[in-house]
Amino acid sequence: AQKITQTQPGMFVQEKEAVTLDCTYDTSDPSYGLFWYKQPSSGEMIFLIYQGSYDQQNATEGRYSLNFQKARKSANLVISASQLGDSAMYFCAMREVTGNQFYFGTGTSLTVIP
Amino acid sequence: DARVTQTPRDKVTEMGQEVTMRCQPILGHNTVFWYRQTMMQGLELLAYFRNRAPLDDSGMPKDRFSAEMPDATLATLKIQPSEPRDSAVYFCASGFWDRGGFGTEAFFGQGTRLTVV
To answer: What's the pLDDT band for A2 if we cut at 50, 70, 90?
Structure first.
């Protein structure tokens, strides 16, 4: 079974609009962390935001926020006020404390339209 | 500015040759990952180390791939012999993760783009 599922291969958003990138995860470990990374066309992997399984509040980092719904096992990334520079691949990832591995989804390609 | 350093950035080699990719993790990080990224398979975990000990290398084709950490400042990934299907971008990532917590996120190097012809 897939540990991380990203069901949107590609998304388009108008500049200055908000966009939500979906991520669902599968784990039986009570302790885990959820991460989002951005990969622009240059190829580097850039860490965006982190949410721990015991965190009560949704994580926010500037224009990025993580909509964490634990019961639904979803960790959607919300980008507010999209900018042209946000065009990139976005990966959701999870680390389980017991397993120690770092699982990645297949990614969502986001294109911001001027 | 601490970063994960990978060398070489680009490598073109002929089928059958040995390829060695190097990674310098961020000083103080105790966990190192090797990933392979292709269009078809996405990001695949090949191997990872904690405190220089290999914890899992089940993602690696054992007959041709090997990963080592000869010291805390160097991780290597070798392919011998290389094949055209090994063409991909290989990423190294490091982080500091405790057994009981999460520590830092994983920081990625810029990758090695390998082309086997």
So the answer is: confident
- What digits encode the pLDDT tens for the residues A17-27? 999 999 999 99
Strands (E) in chain A, as ranges, are 4-5, 10-14, 19-21, 24-25, 32-39, 46-52, 60-61, 64-69, 74-79, 88-96, 102-104, 108-113
What residues of chain B have any CB closer than 8 angstroms to a CB in chain A?
31, 33, 35, 42-43, 45, 48, 50, 55-56, 89, 91, 93, 97, 99-102, 105-108, 110-111, 113
* The pLDDT value given to residue B103: 63
Q: Which residues of chain B lie closer than 8 angstroms to A37, CB-CB?
A: 108
The per-residue pLDDT for A99 is 64
**Is B114 in contact with B17 (CB distance < 8 Å)?**
no
Interface test with A, best of B10, B29, B37 (most A CBs within 10 A): B37
